[in-house]
Amino acid sequence: MAPKFRDVDQTTPLLLDCNNNNGRCGNDVRRIGNGSIVQIERNDKPSPLDARYGTVLVDPVDGRTLEHPTTNLDTLMHMLNGNLGTGILAMPDAFKNAGLYVGFFGTLAMGVICTHCMHLLVRCSHALCRRYGRSSLSYAEVGYYALDSGPSWAQPLAASFRRLINTFLIVMQLGLCCVYYLFVAVNLRELLEYLGVQVPVLTVLGYLLIPLTLMNMVRSLKLLTPTSLTASVLAIAGLAIAFLFLLQDLPHSTTVRPVSSWSTLPLYFGTVMYAFEGIGVVLPLENNMANPRDFIAWNGVLNTGMTIVVCLYSAVGFYGYLKYGEQAQGSVTLNLPNDNLLAQIVRLLMAIAVLASYALQFYVPMTILAPVVTKHFHHRHCAEYVLRLITVLLTFVLAAIIPNLGTFISLVGAVSTSTLALVFPPLIDLLTLWPDGDRPGRRWIVLKDALIIAFGACGFFFGTAKSLATIFGTSGEDDTGGLH
Questions:
Q1: Are 284 and 364 in contact (CB under 8 A)?
Q2: Distance between CA atoms of residues 418 and 92, nearest Å
Q3: What is the pLDDT of residues 92-128, one digit of tens each?
């Protein structure tokens, strides 16, 4: 069945660097007699048509013209920065809810599944770019065009699906910004107490408002590279020092539970899914690369970055839980001795790293909200800066008023991250696959995608239920190890 093409919808902005692309495309987009879209190369000679889709077999990345493209190293730093946030520090607490061996092998398995879903998202983006003559697409647009060219009953739902994805992205990324903000404030307060200065968390939050506001006035992803590089280096340095504590006087593995109870597994799932928080930045990073083909190669940026991330997650969770057992808190920095200088250095390094990571997490919701809001104003740049200021203030208010942000973020991880990372990518893959009925191995692909969707949906429902029960106190205690 040939896909049904509609007029290209330009109402949703690309999730791209606002200083890149400038609306230009290296190839011209034209319609042929049957209404299908074709791309004409710059030498004005059309490439061979794909008989299945009626489109030109031109790699969509050839149509990108970027003023400030990112290098492979830039992208790898952003990839690490987008994943090595506060989630990795909560991994010992996650292992406490799963058990030592269930946590270890479960984290490895979920890392592989999440990485595979990231690949699905990028590959579907490329396929849909070819169908619709686009040089790049945002996450929400990938979902829109997947439904638009899918089965006839799904096509009217395309616009709603796009809005749903954008809503989940905004909730997830702003939730990450809130916990990043509070994490920095809590760790800086403990550092100040070590130095003999007694200040409440709210005061530290207020002082942090100025550097965060200035940092988030940067609109270019390329210009955020120094902060991502700084954050990645400091995070790895902080983790290296933390391992000096984690690896000292380790007890035998029999001192901790190999398998935890079924009742706490949903909390483990929510915490791990919150830790794998990089799904929202995958397409923006790939869209802004100077050599985007290097992103999903077998030894490319995505596999390299996620291999590093999954190994670090597993190691911190394994040794952190083995070291502190049932006393593991929501952040491993809170288990370090308060009277030790090295422990305070770890808190400082991780606080600065998370502070620098805030800007990258903030970048995603701004690329969604800014075009929608600023189109109503004559001076769009001024309106965007005001929007950025208001959004930073919103994260300040949420960080200040939410009594236990750790539990709140477990809910955000179960609701938003599980759907964005595990449910939507295989669903989009099935819809993108729909017009190609003769694809080799189609039945196995459908079975694999269906199993991932079922796994993500179960995690969504059980993780959300357990998090809500914890928030409203029906579980008896705060199992998430909140940051407060």
A1: yes
A2: 20
A3: 988 998 899 999 999 999 999 999 999 999 999 988 8
- The better pLDDT of the pair 144, 464 is held by 144
* Whole-angstrom distance, CA of residue 268 vs CA of residue 284: 28
Structure tokens at 379: 């001076």
pLDDT (0 to 100) of residue 57: 44
Q: Which two tokens stand for residue 184?
A: 């920095």
Cβ atoms of 417 and 279 within 8 Å: the answer is yes
Q: What are the distances in angstroms from CA 238 to CA 186, 204, 415?
A: 16, 21, 30
Q: What is the largest CA-CA distance in the chain?
A: 77
Residue 105 to residue 90: CA distance in whole angstroms: 17
User: Could you tell me which of 177, 381, 363, 383 has the C-alpha nearest to residue 288?
Assistant: 363
Q: CA separation (Å) from 278 to 176, 194, 332, 371, 377? A: 11, 33, 21, 23, 32
d(CA 433, CA 1): 11
- The whole-chain average pLDDT of the chain stands at 78
The single-letter DSSP state of residue 255 is: G
H-state helical runs in 65-157: 72-83, 86-89, 91-98, 100-132, 139-148
Rounded to two decimals, the pTM is 0.77
Question: Is the alpha carbon torsion for 360, 364, 365, 367 positive or negative?
Answer: positive
Domains of the chain as residue ranges with CATH: 72-472 (1.20.1740.10)
Main-chain dihedrals φ then ψ at residue 75, nearest 5 degrees: -65, -40
Q: Which residues pair with 39 in a beta bridge?
A: 29
Tell me how far apart the terminal alpha carbons of the chain are, to the nearest angstrom. Answer: 56
How many helices (H) and strands (E) the chain has is answered by 17, 4
Using the structure block, give the residue that is written with the tokens 């901790």. 256
Q: pLDDT tens across 381-393, in order?
A: 888 888 889 998 9
Please state, in angstroms and rounded to a whole number, the distance separating the CA atoms of residues 280 and 416: 10
Please give the backbone phi and psi of residue 49, each rounded to the nearest 5 degrees, phi first: -80, 145
Of all helices (H) and strands (E), which one includes residue 354?
Answer: helix 341-374
Is 20 within 8 Å of 66 (Cβ atoms)? yes
Measured in whole angstroms, how far is the alpha carbon of residue 76 from the centre of its chain? 14
- Report residue 152 as tokens: 């006839």
